[in-house]
């Protein structure tokens, strides 16, 4: 089989800083496990737009079309003054997700004993938290039409978005989440607002029917999204796999980051349906954004990006042992006291981005 093509797009703000450390880890594991992998870096982002007039230049577009897995840093979608709307749309993260056909965004949340004091939660709440969001990534209010800002009959402006799901989108995300739960602790919590939204009511019907037809061995709970927000901080251990839509998944996964101590700890991986050759196309990225408040200082936490490499090794390269080794190295580095500023306690010395990368690599 052809080597796995990995396309590295650092993007904006701290994106390139944390991705550089992730890439060191990826190259190390590629060599250590002799993985057939071709790694290509391409420019992408606001700096690229300023330099070339294009957010995603032609060579990057071409690389996106042939890649198996993108290792992505971050975008700063707020720092785009003066950028033409077409350029924004062509190069946006949303259009990238769509071009790759990504529909299942996996956002695992695990807690590290070493960070008990850093998290605002009590250690007894945190102990043993091990959950994963399956965030539907192809639909919902992110893509629904009509959308826009327009004027009503009285000349007042109004912003319009449309929350829409068709049953095929719900089924493919739910089937993925059920299968994932089956390989874990066998519990799926499906999160919606069936009490308010028709798209939520359909979501619940479709998930219930799929459970009945194909996944009766998995325990299914339905939960309203607001309750899920509460349960994530009252009793997070109850969750195994959480299936939810694009917007709820975005919000609830950031809310869960508090348990992990920092947004700088949470990785994610997004997958397409299998292509004819059996491979899924994928994009791996930290859950966090470009962090303009700390960009350029070399202080960002690279662990979310490094843990995203673990997801790449697991889901795209298919080497579970290598994925676990990276995750274990992160835990070992934390246990040995390695702390970037976001996870250091007041007065505790903090390591920069590269030194955090060193601390992980030293354990691989
Ligand atoms: P953010 O995630 O960039 O930052 C939120 C807070 O967390 C900031 O205080 C930041 O310093 C901190 N933080 C984030 N990552 C960190 C890390 N690795 N190490 C240490 N601290 C870290 O969210 P924001 O500030 O609301 O958004 C900034 C920009 O990022 C916006 O343009 C937003 O659209 C974009 N964004 C992009 C993505 C993505 O690329 N997938 C995700 C979220 C936000
Ligand atoms: C994320 C981000 C993105 C999202 C933005 C930057 C489009 O918040 O990946 O969590 O909302 O999906
Ligand atoms: Mn988000």
UniProtKB/TrEMBL annotation:
Gene: leuB
Keyword Magnesium (UniProt): yes
SUPFAM superfamilies assigned: Isocitrate/Isopropylmalate dehydrogenase-like
Domain Isopropylmalate dehydrogenase-like, residue spans: 5-360
Protein name: 3-isopropylmalate dehydrogenase
Alphabetical list of NCBIfam families matching this protein: leuB (TIGR00169)
Cofactor(s) for this UniProt protein: Mn(2+); Mg(2+)
Lineage: Bacteria, Pseudomonadati, Pseudomonadota, Alphaproteobacteria, Acetobacterales
Subunit architecture: Homodimer.
